[in-house]
Amino acid sequence: MKRKIADKSKKSTKVWRNIISSSLSDLQNEKIFINFGDSSAVLSRSDCIRAISETIPESAIRNLLLKCLLDAENQSVGSSFVMLSLLAGNESEQDTVGKRFTMDQVRSSLKFLTDSLSSRISIESTIIAGRQGKVMLDSNISQQTEISYGSQSCKWKPDESFFSAIGSSKVAVQNCKVLFIDGIIESVSEIHHLFHSSYEEKMPIVIFARGFAAEVIKTAAVNMQRQTAQIIPIVVPFDEIGINGMADIAGCFGSEVISADKGQLISSIKLNECVSADRIISNLSSTEIEFKNNRIESVVEKLSIRLRSCDDNQADFIRRRIAALGTGTVTIKVGSDKKSLAGLQRDHIDFCLRYIKSCMSSGVIKFNGIYFPSKSVKSGISCANSFMSMLQNCGNILEVDNVVGS
Question: Any idea what the Cα angle at residue 90 is, between residues 100 and 13, rounded to 5°?
Fold first, then answer.
Protein backbone atom coordinates (compact mmCIF):
# COMPACT_ATOMS: atom_id res chain seq x y z
CA MET A 1 0.00 0.00 0.00
CA LYS A 2 2.89 2.36 0.80
CA ARG A 3 4.29 1.93 -2.69
CA LYS A 4 0.90 2.63 -4.25
CA ILE A 5 0.63 5.79 -2.13
CA ALA A 6 4.09 6.97 -3.17
CA ASP A 7 3.36 6.28 -6.85
CA LYS A 8 0.05 8.14 -6.60
CA SER A 9 1.77 11.10 -4.92
CA LYS A 10 4.41 11.35 -7.67
CA LYS A 11 1.75 11.09 -10.36
CA SER A 12 -0.40 13.78 -8.73
CA THR A 13 2.61 16.08 -8.39
CA LYS A 14 3.57 15.62 -12.04
CA VAL A 15 -0.01 16.20 -13.24
CA TRP A 16 -0.31 19.45 -11.33
CA ARG A 17 3.09 20.67 -12.45
CA ASN A 18 1.91 20.18 -16.03
CA ILE A 19 -1.40 21.95 -15.36
CA ILE A 20 0.33 24.92 -13.73
CA SER A 21 3.00 25.02 -16.44
CA SER A 22 0.33 25.12 -19.15
CA SER A 23 -1.58 27.97 -17.46
CA LEU A 24 1.62 29.93 -16.87
CA SER A 25 2.64 29.44 -20.50
CA ASP A 26 -0.73 30.75 -21.72
CA LEU A 27 -0.39 33.74 -19.40
CA GLN A 28 3.13 34.51 -20.62
CA ASN A 29 2.03 34.21 -24.26
CA GLU A 30 -0.93 36.57 -23.68
CA LYS A 31 -3.55 33.92 -24.40
CA ILE A 32 -5.72 34.50 -21.33
CA PHE A 33 -8.41 37.17 -21.70
CA ILE A 34 -10.98 38.55 -19.31
CA ASN A 35 -14.26 40.09 -20.51
CA PHE A 36 -15.86 43.21 -19.02
CA GLY A 37 -19.02 43.43 -21.11
CA ASP A 38 -18.10 46.30 -23.44
CA SER A 39 -14.44 45.30 -23.74
CA SER A 40 -11.86 42.64 -22.94
CA ALA A 41 -8.26 42.62 -21.83
CA VAL A 42 -5.26 40.31 -21.82
CA LEU A 43 -4.26 39.37 -18.29
CA SER A 44 -0.73 40.28 -17.29
CA ARG A 45 1.70 38.28 -15.18
CA SER A 46 0.70 40.28 -12.12
CA ASP A 47 -2.84 38.91 -12.66
CA CYS A 48 -1.60 35.32 -12.29
CA ILE A 49 -4.01 34.48 -9.43
CA ARG A 50 -6.96 35.57 -11.55
CA ALA A 51 -5.53 33.62 -14.49
CA ILE A 52 -5.36 30.41 -12.45
CA SER A 53 -8.92 30.96 -11.27
CA GLU A 54 -10.10 31.49 -14.86
CA THR A 55 -8.25 28.60 -16.55
CA ILE A 56 -8.20 25.68 -14.09
CA PRO A 57 -11.50 23.91 -13.35
CA GLU A 58 -12.76 23.94 -9.77
CA SER A 59 -11.38 21.20 -7.52
CA ALA A 60 -10.06 20.79 -4.00
CA ILE A 61 -6.45 21.01 -5.15
CA ARG A 62 -7.14 24.01 -7.40
CA ASN A 63 -8.71 25.80 -4.42
CA LEU A 64 -5.71 24.84 -2.31
CA LEU A 65 -3.43 26.31 -4.98
CA LEU A 66 -5.39 29.58 -5.05
CA LYS A 67 -5.20 29.84 -1.25
CA CYS A 68 -1.43 29.37 -1.31
CA LEU A 69 -1.08 31.97 -4.08
CA LEU A 70 -3.16 34.47 -2.10
CA ASP A 71 -1.10 33.76 1.02
CA ALA A 72 2.09 34.39 -0.96
CA GLU A 73 0.82 37.66 -2.46
CA ASN A 74 -0.39 38.88 0.93
CA GLN A 75 3.08 38.28 2.34
CA SER A 76 4.84 40.23 -0.38
CA VAL A 77 3.83 41.68 -3.76
CA GLY A 78 4.89 39.53 -6.73
CA SER A 79 5.31 36.39 -4.62
CA SER A 80 2.45 34.61 -6.38
CA PHE A 81 4.22 34.79 -9.75
CA VAL A 82 7.47 33.53 -8.20
CA MET A 83 5.54 30.66 -6.64
CA LEU A 84 3.86 29.71 -9.94
CA SER A 85 7.18 29.82 -11.77
CA LEU A 86 8.71 27.44 -9.26
CA LEU A 87 5.72 25.06 -9.36
CA ALA A 88 5.93 25.04 -13.17
CA GLY A 89 9.55 23.91 -12.89
CA ASN A 90 11.10 27.24 -13.95
CA GLU A 91 13.79 27.18 -11.31
CA SER A 92 16.99 29.15 -11.56
CA GLU A 93 19.81 30.27 -9.34
CA GLN A 94 19.13 33.41 -7.41
CA ASP A 95 20.83 35.53 -4.80
CA THR A 96 19.85 35.06 -1.19
CA VAL A 97 20.46 38.61 -0.02
CA GLY A 98 18.60 41.69 -1.27
CA LYS A 99 20.78 44.06 -3.29
CA ARG A 100 20.57 47.67 -4.34
CA PHE A 101 18.88 48.46 -7.64
CA THR A 102 18.36 51.10 -10.28
CA MET A 103 14.99 52.45 -11.35
CA ASP A 104 15.66 51.15 -14.87
CA GLN A 105 15.93 47.60 -13.50
CA VAL A 106 12.64 47.93 -11.64
CA ARG A 107 11.00 49.63 -14.63
CA SER A 108 11.86 46.70 -16.94
CA SER A 109 10.64 44.20 -14.34
CA LEU A 110 7.32 46.00 -13.88
CA LYS A 111 6.83 46.27 -17.64
CA PHE A 112 7.33 42.49 -17.81
CA LEU A 113 4.89 41.84 -14.97
CA THR A 114 2.16 44.41 -15.77
CA ASP A 115 2.00 46.79 -18.75
CA SER A 116 3.95 49.72 -20.19
CA LEU A 117 1.59 52.48 -19.00
CA SER A 118 1.33 51.22 -15.41
CA SER A 119 5.08 50.71 -15.06
CA ARG A 120 5.92 54.09 -16.62
CA ILE A 121 3.46 56.18 -14.64
CA SER A 122 4.36 54.43 -11.36
CA ILE A 123 8.10 54.91 -11.84
CA GLU A 124 7.67 58.55 -12.89
CA SER A 125 5.47 59.27 -9.87
CA THR A 126 7.98 57.69 -7.52
CA ILE A 127 10.81 59.75 -9.00
CA ILE A 128 8.79 62.97 -8.72
CA ALA A 129 7.83 62.27 -5.10
CA GLY A 130 11.36 61.28 -4.10
CA ARG A 131 12.48 58.32 -2.02
CA GLN A 132 10.92 59.67 1.17
CA GLY A 133 7.80 61.00 -0.58
CA LYS A 134 4.32 59.60 -1.01
CA VAL A 135 2.48 58.41 -4.10
CA MET A 136 -1.29 58.15 -3.80
CA LEU A 137 -3.72 56.40 -6.15
CA ASP A 138 -6.95 58.39 -6.51
CA SER A 139 -10.06 56.26 -6.08
CA ASN A 140 -12.08 58.53 -8.37
CA ILE A 141 -12.14 58.23 -12.16
CA SER A 142 -10.49 61.06 -14.12
CA GLN A 143 -10.78 61.90 -17.82
CA GLN A 144 -7.47 60.20 -18.53
CA THR A 145 -4.78 58.25 -16.71
CA GLU A 146 -2.20 60.76 -15.53
CA ILE A 147 0.00 62.07 -12.77
CA SER A 148 -2.31 64.81 -11.65
CA TYR A 149 -0.06 66.92 -9.45
CA GLY A 150 2.84 66.90 -7.07
CA SER A 151 3.23 68.43 -3.64
CA GLN A 152 6.03 68.78 -1.15
CA SER A 153 6.21 69.62 2.51
CA CYS A 154 9.09 71.96 3.40
CA LYS A 155 10.29 73.12 6.83
CA TRP A 156 9.66 76.83 6.30
CA LYS A 157 6.46 78.43 7.58
CA PRO A 158 4.94 81.73 8.73
CA ASP A 159 5.99 83.23 12.07
CA GLU A 160 3.97 82.05 15.08
CA SER A 161 2.63 85.58 15.55
CA PHE A 162 0.79 85.24 12.22
CA PHE A 163 -1.10 82.16 13.43
CA SER A 164 -1.86 83.87 16.74
CA ALA A 165 -3.26 86.87 14.90
CA ILE A 166 -5.57 84.83 12.64
CA GLY A 167 -6.63 82.64 15.58
CA SER A 168 -5.79 79.37 13.86
CA SER A 169 -2.90 76.89 13.71
CA LYS A 170 -3.34 76.40 9.96
CA VAL A 171 -3.87 78.55 6.89
CA ALA A 172 -4.56 77.45 3.32
CA VAL A 173 -5.01 79.06 -0.08
CA GLN A 174 -5.75 77.65 -3.52
CA ASN A 175 -4.75 78.74 -7.05
CA CYS A 176 -2.25 81.23 -5.69
CA LYS A 177 0.79 83.13 -6.90
CA VAL A 178 4.16 82.49 -5.27
CA LEU A 179 7.21 84.73 -5.08
CA PHE A 180 10.62 84.55 -3.45
CA ILE A 181 12.33 87.63 -1.99
CA ASP A 182 15.90 87.59 -0.73
CA GLY A 183 15.34 90.24 1.90
CA ILE A 184 13.26 91.36 4.87
CA ILE A 185 9.90 93.08 4.23
CA GLU A 186 10.23 95.96 6.70
CA SER A 187 7.03 97.87 5.99
CA VAL A 188 3.58 97.39 4.48
CA SER A 189 4.34 100.08 1.91
CA GLU A 190 6.94 97.78 0.28
CA ILE A 191 4.28 95.28 -0.70
CA HIS A 192 1.22 97.53 -0.71
CA HIS A 193 0.76 96.94 -4.44
CA LEU A 194 0.67 93.18 -3.77
CA PHE A 195 -2.07 93.60 -1.16
CA HIS A 196 -3.98 95.72 -3.67
CA SER A 197 -3.49 93.21 -6.51
CA SER A 198 -4.60 90.33 -4.31
CA TYR A 199 -7.77 92.23 -3.39
CA GLU A 200 -8.56 93.46 -6.91
CA GLU A 201 -7.84 90.16 -8.69
CA LYS A 202 -9.10 87.89 -5.89
CA MET A 203 -5.72 86.18 -6.11
CA PRO A 204 -4.04 84.70 -3.01
CA ILE A 205 -0.29 85.36 -2.77
CA VAL A 206 2.37 83.43 -0.84
CA ILE A 207 5.60 85.28 -0.16
CA PHE A 208 8.80 83.50 0.86
CA ALA A 209 11.13 86.12 2.37
CA ARG A 210 13.93 86.43 4.94
CA GLY A 211 11.59 88.02 7.44
CA PHE A 212 8.60 90.31 7.92
CA ALA A 213 8.16 93.29 10.22
CA ALA A 214 5.46 92.97 12.90
CA GLU A 215 3.19 95.46 11.10
CA VAL A 216 3.43 93.43 7.86
CA ILE A 217 2.48 90.22 9.66
CA LYS A 218 -0.40 91.95 11.45
CA THR A 219 -1.72 93.50 8.22
CA ALA A 220 -1.54 90.17 6.40
CA ALA A 221 -3.38 88.44 9.27
CA VAL A 222 -6.18 91.04 9.42
CA ASN A 223 -6.75 90.85 5.67
CA MET A 224 -6.68 87.04 5.80
CA GLN A 225 -9.35 87.03 8.51
CA ARG A 226 -11.52 89.43 6.51
CA GLN A 227 -10.88 87.49 3.29
CA THR A 228 -10.01 90.72 1.51
CA ALA A 229 -6.36 90.49 0.45
CA GLN A 230 -4.93 87.01 1.01
CA ILE A 231 -1.18 87.04 1.62
CA ILE A 232 0.71 84.34 3.53
CA PRO A 233 4.15 85.52 4.76
CA ILE A 234 6.55 82.54 4.98
CA VAL A 235 9.93 83.04 6.63
CA VAL A 236 13.10 81.51 5.21
CA PRO A 237 15.65 82.80 7.73
CA PHE A 238 19.14 83.87 6.74
CA ASP A 239 20.77 81.02 8.67
CA GLU A 240 23.13 78.22 7.68
CA ILE A 241 20.43 76.28 5.82
CA GLY A 242 18.15 79.13 4.83
CA ILE A 243 20.93 81.06 3.11
CA ASN A 244 20.76 78.51 0.28
CA GLY A 245 17.25 77.31 1.09
CA MET A 246 15.61 80.25 -0.66
CA ALA A 247 17.23 79.33 -3.97
CA ASP A 248 16.49 75.64 -3.36
CA ILE A 249 12.75 76.14 -2.82
CA ALA A 250 12.54 78.62 -5.72
CA GLY A 251 14.31 76.01 -7.88
CA CYS A 252 11.54 73.53 -7.11
CA PHE A 253 9.16 75.99 -8.79
CA GLY A 254 11.56 76.84 -11.58
CA SER A 255 11.44 80.43 -10.35
CA GLU A 256 14.10 83.03 -9.65
CA VAL A 257 14.75 84.78 -6.34
CA ILE A 258 14.10 88.52 -6.34
CA SER A 259 17.18 90.23 -4.92
CA ALA A 260 18.38 93.83 -4.56
CA ASP A 261 21.88 92.53 -5.29
CA LYS A 262 20.68 91.89 -8.83
CA GLY A 263 19.12 95.33 -9.09
CA GLN A 264 15.57 93.98 -8.70
CA LEU A 265 12.89 95.91 -6.80
CA ILE A 266 9.91 94.51 -4.92
CA SER A 267 7.81 97.37 -6.29
CA SER A 268 8.43 96.14 -9.85
CA ILE A 269 6.96 92.68 -9.20
CA LYS A 270 4.12 91.88 -11.60
CA LEU A 271 1.67 89.30 -10.37
CA ASN A 272 1.02 87.79 -13.80
CA GLU A 273 4.74 86.99 -14.12
CA CYS A 274 4.91 85.05 -10.84
CA VAL A 275 4.78 81.26 -10.67
CA SER A 276 1.58 79.56 -9.52
CA ALA A 277 0.66 76.80 -7.07
CA ASP A 278 -2.53 74.75 -6.92
CA ARG A 279 -2.66 74.87 -3.14
CA ILE A 280 -0.46 75.86 -0.20
CA ILE A 281 -1.16 74.87 3.39
CA SER A 282 0.96 76.23 6.25
CA ASN A 283 0.89 75.18 9.88
CA LEU A 284 3.09 75.68 12.93
CA SER A 285 5.66 73.13 11.79
CA SER A 286 5.80 73.15 7.97
CA THR A 287 4.30 74.24 4.65
CA GLU A 288 2.77 71.84 2.15
CA ILE A 289 2.98 73.01 -1.44
CA GLU A 290 0.89 71.41 -4.16
CA PHE A 291 1.65 72.29 -7.76
CA LYS A 292 2.23 70.85 -11.19
CA ASN A 293 5.71 70.47 -12.69
CA ASN A 294 7.35 70.15 -9.29
CA ARG A 295 11.11 70.16 -9.88
CA ILE A 296 12.13 68.96 -6.41
CA GLU A 297 13.65 65.77 -7.82
CA SER A 298 15.93 67.79 -10.10
CA VAL A 299 17.01 70.06 -7.23
CA VAL A 300 17.65 67.09 -4.93
CA GLU A 301 19.55 65.25 -7.68
CA LYS A 302 21.92 68.21 -8.13
CA LEU A 303 22.51 68.36 -4.38
CA SER A 304 23.01 64.57 -4.28
CA ILE A 305 25.72 64.78 -6.96
CA ARG A 306 27.57 67.29 -4.81
CA LEU A 307 27.02 65.07 -1.79
CA ARG A 308 28.98 62.24 -3.40
CA SER A 309 32.12 64.32 -3.87
CA CYS A 310 32.40 66.48 -0.73
CA ASP A 311 33.94 66.06 2.72
CA ASP A 312 32.01 64.99 5.83
CA ASN A 313 31.28 68.52 7.09
CA GLN A 314 29.98 69.67 3.74
CA ALA A 315 28.00 66.43 3.35
CA ASP A 316 26.13 67.06 6.61
CA PHE A 317 25.28 70.57 5.44
CA ILE A 318 23.93 69.32 2.08
CA ARG A 319 21.86 66.61 3.77
CA ARG A 320 20.21 69.27 5.93
CA ARG A 321 19.45 71.34 2.82
CA ILE A 322 17.77 68.32 1.24
CA ALA A 323 15.85 67.59 4.46
CA ALA A 324 14.64 71.22 4.60
CA LEU A 325 13.01 70.84 1.18
CA GLY A 326 10.93 68.05 2.63
CA THR A 327 9.25 65.12 0.94
CA GLY A 328 7.02 65.13 -2.09
CA THR A 329 3.54 63.75 -2.67
CA VAL A 330 2.14 62.75 -6.05
CA THR A 331 -1.37 61.66 -6.98
CA ILE A 332 -2.13 59.24 -9.84
CA LYS A 333 -5.55 59.32 -11.46
CA VAL A 334 -6.94 56.49 -13.61
CA GLY A 335 -8.83 57.71 -16.66
CA SER A 336 -12.33 57.00 -17.85
CA ASP A 337 -10.81 56.55 -21.32
CA LYS A 338 -10.10 53.00 -20.15
CA LYS A 339 -13.87 52.48 -19.73
CA SER A 340 -14.55 49.20 -17.92
CA LEU A 341 -10.83 48.40 -17.92
CA ALA A 342 -10.19 51.22 -15.43
CA GLY A 343 -10.44 48.78 -12.53
CA LEU A 344 -7.79 46.49 -14.04
CA GLN A 345 -5.57 49.49 -14.79
CA ARG A 346 -5.87 50.63 -11.19
CA ASP A 347 -4.95 47.11 -10.00
CA HIS A 348 -1.81 47.19 -12.15
CA ILE A 349 -0.74 50.63 -10.90
CA ASP A 350 -1.41 49.58 -7.32
CA PHE A 351 0.72 46.47 -7.90
CA CYS A 352 3.54 48.61 -9.31
CA LEU A 353 3.49 51.07 -6.41
CA ARG A 354 3.57 48.29 -3.81
CA TYR A 355 6.32 46.54 -5.79
CA ILE A 356 8.53 49.66 -5.84
CA LYS A 357 7.96 50.24 -2.14
CA SER A 358 8.93 46.64 -1.34
CA CYS A 359 12.09 46.94 -3.47
CA MET A 360 13.07 50.06 -1.55
CA SER A 361 12.39 48.31 1.74
CA SER A 362 14.20 45.00 1.26
CA GLY A 363 16.35 45.32 -1.86
CA VAL A 364 16.00 43.10 -4.92
CA ILE A 365 16.87 39.56 -5.96
CA LYS A 366 17.25 38.56 -9.59
CA PHE A 367 14.96 35.60 -10.25
CA ASN A 368 14.68 34.15 -13.76
CA GLY A 369 16.16 37.36 -15.15
CA ILE A 370 13.63 39.62 -13.38
CA TYR A 371 14.34 41.84 -10.38
CA PHE A 372 11.90 40.99 -7.59
CA PRO A 373 11.75 42.38 -4.04
CA SER A 374 13.91 40.01 -1.99
CA LYS A 375 11.02 39.31 0.37
CA SER A 376 8.84 38.30 -2.59
CA VAL A 377 11.30 35.67 -3.79
CA LYS A 378 11.65 34.22 -0.31
CA SER A 379 7.86 34.17 0.23
CA GLY A 380 7.30 32.62 -3.20
CA ILE A 381 9.77 29.82 -2.47
CA SER A 382 8.27 29.17 0.96
CA CYS A 383 4.67 29.04 -0.32
CA ALA A 384 5.64 26.85 -3.28
CA ASN A 385 7.25 24.35 -0.91
CA SER A 386 4.17 24.44 1.33
CA PHE A 387 1.83 23.75 -1.59
CA MET A 388 3.92 20.81 -2.83
CA SER A 389 4.01 19.36 0.68
CA MET A 390 0.23 19.67 1.07
CA LEU A 391 -0.32 18.28 -2.44
CA GLN A 392 1.69 15.17 -1.60
CA ASN A 393 -0.08 14.71 1.73
CA CYS A 394 -3.46 15.25 0.08
CA GLY A 395 -2.69 12.55 -2.50
CA ASN A 396 -1.59 10.15 0.20
CA ILE A 397 -4.71 10.66 2.26
CA LEU A 398 -7.00 10.18 -0.75
CA GLU A 399 -5.18 6.96 -1.71
CA VAL A 400 -5.41 5.59 1.83
CA ASP A 401 -9.14 6.30 1.89
CA ASN A 402 -9.58 4.47 -1.42
CA VAL A 403 -7.65 1.44 -0.21
CA VAL A 404 -9.56 1.24 3.06
CA GLY A 405 -12.88 1.57 1.27
CA SER A 406 -12.08 -1.17 -1.32
Answer: 135
